[in-house]
Amino acid sequence: MDLMKSLALLVSLLMMTMLVSGVIAVLLTFRKTRAMSNLTARPLQRIVTLALAGISFLIGLQIFTQVNSLGGRIFGGIGIIFALIAIYRVFKK
Q1: 25 with 45: CB under 8 angstroms?
Q2: Cα–Cα–Cα angle for 48, 6, 4, nearest 5°?
Q3: What pLDDT, on the 0 to 100 scale, is given for residue 77?
Q4: 1: which DSSP letter?
Q5: What tens digit of pLDDT does each residue of 46-88 get?
Q6: In which element (H, E) is residue 34 found?
Q7: Taking CA 61 as the corner, what is the angle to CA 26 and CA 93, rounded to the nearest 5 degrees?
Q8: At CA 11, angle to CA 89 and CA 67, rounded to 5?
Q9: Could you give the C-alpha distances from 21 to 9, 39, 40, 51, 82, in angstroms and in order?
Q10: Exposed/middle/buried for 69, CB within 10 Å: 0-12, 13-18, 19+?
Q11: C-alpha distances in angstroms, 74 versus 4, 26, 59, 71, 77?
Q12: CB neighbours of 61 closer than 8 A, spacing ≥ 6?
């Protein structure tokens, strides 16, 4: 019984990581930087955004492709969509 509880905890942590990293990556793309801090803050912001979007994309893709239920595919799709929006907004600028 304890094994199933720990498995459920692991799955919930993975899904939380996927959703939180995707949302933070999208929110970082809306952050404005001042002209003086563009030399250091802008590249660092892009690197962090791409790293978080990559985490969200990979976990979302894993959940989307390996789960047969509709709910799992929806959650995986949400992670993938957040990651693609963040990546698009990083390279659009």
Answers
A1: no
A2: 135
A3: 95
A4: -
A5: 999 999 999 999 999 999 999 999 999 999 999 999 999 999 9
A6: none
A7: 30
A8: 75
A9: 18, 25, 22, 9, 9
A10: exposed
A11: 23, 18, 13, 5, 5
A12: 76, 79, 80
Residue 43 has pLDDT above 90, yes or no: no
Tokens of 33: 């930087």
- Note the helical H segments in 1-93: 2-29, 38-66, 70-92
What is the share, in percent, of the chain residues with pLDDT greater than 70?
90
Candidates 41, 44, 49, 45; CA nearest to 87 is: 49
Tokens coding 19? 């959703």
Tokens 């969509």 correspond to what residue?
A: 81
Count of residues in the chain: 93
Amino acid at 25: A
This prediction's pTM: 0.86
